[in-house]
Amino acid sequence: MKPRRSIWTPLQVNQGFLVRMGMNRPILGHLTRMRYSSMAPKESPAVTHPVTEKARVLRHIHFKRRCTFEEGLRIQENYVLHALEAKRMQSKIAQRLRQRAESTASTDLMLDWPAPAKCITTPSPVVLTFEFEPTYTGGKRIKKTITNDEIQALESFTPPGSEGYPNPKFVQVERGGHITFHGPGQMVAYIVLDLKAFHRFTPRCLVSVIEKATINTLRYAPKQETTWNAARRRSNTLGIKAIQTSENGVWIDEKRKIASLGVNVRRSVTSHGVCINVNPTLQYLNNFTMCGLPESSATSIYELVPDATCNVGDVAATFVNELCILLGIKNIDRAVI
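^ that's the sequence the OP posted. Answer follows.
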């Protein structure tokens, strides 16, 4: 089965909803949308599959305009809270139904009703992809140990090639790990989904899926800049061979890291995700110890493939494609802002 031809059209959405999700009206800009179907190739079998109807479609929102890390974090948090509220309502309705059934000494109430609790489903999985202004983020492992002097050193660092960028900020976040850099030339993907919407899917499974999707992205992303459509696995791809090691993230070898991972889970709803180095100023990462690994260094797609011209959007689209294959999701609903 061949993927349906991708067609881009103006996105007809309730912009008020997007604003409530944390998107400022000035950054909404021109929205385009598409949906397509893809069939997973035999060499990349799914490791799980959706068990709810909503989870059969993944929503991908890509932000073309570079924004602040705090702005992206706020947008992500609103999606997480939206999913958590739906789960809370599900639980509340189910609890009241059980109480009514017990008070009437009958299970007929539970059997005959049209399952109101199931009518309130958690939202579809969402992947938010960004390119941020220079930002150093601290994970939970360094939350109580990082000093003011260390933060000052991070926020005052301006390497050659960073002209025109604002000075970095330091932001403490609720994800695992140590210090990580997010900035221009990096593709950051935040994955918001309900683990219980997938078959036997744990937080550890999610981390493994993100790593595998990143490895496949580095292999199959287009080498040259594209018009950012959803075509699957083109010819003339990057062909980068990346690996998993005993350390978190995705690596080129035991010393060179190309992608960082960090996830958080609240009541089975996930947040945060992966950061892939497309063409960042590498001094931002290599002048300090990143991810608690002093012996490692960062590399990028452009450093490994000098004639590559793919952009953050190309890498974002490919990553979402590969993630959906591993999650057993056949349909992607995309919006570009």
